[in-house]
Amino acid sequence: MKNIAIVGLGYVGLPLSLQFARGGAQVLGLDIDDSKVKSLLAGQSYIHHIPSAAIAEQVNAKRLDASTSFARVKEVDAVIICVPTPLNKNREPDISYIIKTGEAIAPHMKRGQLIVLESTTYPGTTDEDLKAVLEKGSGLKAGTDFHLAFSPEREDPGNPQSKVATIPKVIGGLTPACLEKTKQLYSIAIQTLVPVSSCRAAEATKLLENIFRGVNIALVNELKVVYAAMGIDIWEVIHAAKTKPFGFMAFYPGPGLGGHCIPIDPFYLTWKAREYGQATRFIELAGEINTAMPERVIQRVVEALNSRRKALNGSRVLVLGIAYKADVDDERESPSYVLLGKLKEGGAEVAYYDPYVPVIRPTREHPQWTGFRSVGWDEATISSYDCVLISTAHAKVDYSELARWSSLIVDTRNAMASVAKVPGQVWAA
Predict the structure, then answer these.
(1) For the chain, is the Cβ count within 10 Å smaller at the N or the C terminus?
(2) Which long-range contacts (CB under 8 A, 24 or more apart) does 415-419 make?
């Protein structure tokens, strides 16, 4: 199984494509975005933490190809689907990208082929929704004429210690034969495989991983507010607690949830649970707490400005960091968008600085910010703002310079903890 197609060449599909190519597979990247295809064929990266040299090496070695033609699915032995699974405006699962991909590849499928879904989704998507689309469009039967499986993506952008090859891979097949084919596929690229009993068990595993994170982040976000009222620094408490070598895992507060996983995935389970008459009160409460954090941050900005006898209305506020996570260029579902919107609604003149996002690309949720550009990083620019709001703590930012240049800083990430500052200059949020 050496010929593989990977559909979706984004933050999941591209690194996976490179790892399979490094493992000796012939990889065909498929994407509806022609600009991505052209960039890959030219050996150029469009994702910050993936160097162009890594792409050029595989393209030049003829191990990585790219196309917008889904008819080329007939050339490969396996197809891996890595497409988005957002929420709609009612916070319900939107699996339309999965369905459209299934419809696009089905007419070109062949007997014996393996189809694997990696997109995070609710249990039952693979063996119900995707299976039905593939069978209808191909005339083939899953588990008999072709193999079907689910294997959740596990990417950690911005973490230099995180390597695709060394992250254990959960895999679940429609049938035992489907699972064996999936083992053969991923053994080309991944060192450790974790087989589970079914596609649904694999789907549920991914949801558990991200719900665990979401619930614990909600806990520290709530404790941050409670401890602040008591005059206790939540960051000091977390750093002390994590010295315990057992029974504790550190999670950190922030301005809200970002990225494509934690703000979205828990709602896939809450939606599906209703079909079975089950309530998910714990998960929903965590979602409410995390969703409310941007409002808390804005209130701190208002309080900080008031301490200088200034109102939010008419003030110039700079949001530091538009990416959802430190040291990446991925701004999907970033709470910074919510903060920018709330600041603007309050009458503030807003701008942002982010060394990884020089210009905001089109997003599904916040199209109004498309084309908005980062300001420069210099004393004249930074000092011209009445308040700087740290939303994302990029290591590339010189926080000592920020302390010298800005008279008022609201810090949601504890980025200023080790920087010399004057009383009343930095407000925790």
Answers:
(1) N
(2) 415/390, 416/390, 417/235
pTM for this model (two decimals): 0.91
- Any alpha helices (H) in 187-329, and if so which ranges? 199-229, 234-241, 265-275, 281-306
- The burial class, CB within 10 Å (0-12 / 13-18 / 19+), for 56 is middle
Torsion angle, alpha carbons of 17, 19, 25, 30, to 10? 0
Other CB atoms within a 10 A radius of the CB of residue 421 amount to 17
- What DSSP state is assigned to residue 142? B
Between vectors from CA 401 to CA 341 and to CA 342, what angle results, nearest 5°?
10
139 CB neighbour count, 10 Å cutoff: 10
Torsion, Cα 301 303 307 312, to 10 degrees, reads 60
CATH architecture label of 3-198: 3-Layer(aba) Sandwich (3.40)
Q: How many CB atoms lie within 10 A of CB 21?
A: 26
Domain 239-428 has CATH 3.40.50.720: yes
Residues in Cβ contact with 122 at an 8 Å cutoff, skipping those fewer than 6 apart? 93, 203, 207, 268, 269, 271, 272
Active site residues: 261
DSSP 242-272: TTSSSS-------SS--SSSTTTHHHHHHHH
First to last CA, the chain: 52
Cβ distance 16 to 189 under 8 Å?
Answer: yes
**Segments making up each domain of the chain, as ranges:** 3-198, 239-428
Q: What is the DSSP letter of 154?
A: -
Q: State the residue for tokens 């008999």.
A: 144
Amino acid at 398: D
Q: Specify the DSSP class assigned to residue 324.
A: S
Structure tokens at 272: 């599906």
pLDDT in the model for residue 280: 93
Q: What are the tokens at 179?
A: 């699972």
Helix/strand/coil percent split, the chain, to 5? 40, 15, 45
DSSP string of 344-407, one letter each residue: HHTT-EEEEE-TT-SBPPP-SS-GGGTT-BPPP-SHHHHTTSSEEEE-S--TTS-HHHHHHH-S
Backbone phi, psi, residue 80, to 5°: -110, 125
Tokens encoding 39: 């960039």
| pLDDT tens track for 352-363 | 999 999 999 888
Does the pLDDT of residue 365 top 90, yes or no? no
CA distance 27 to 16: 10
* 3-198 against 239-428: fold identical: yes
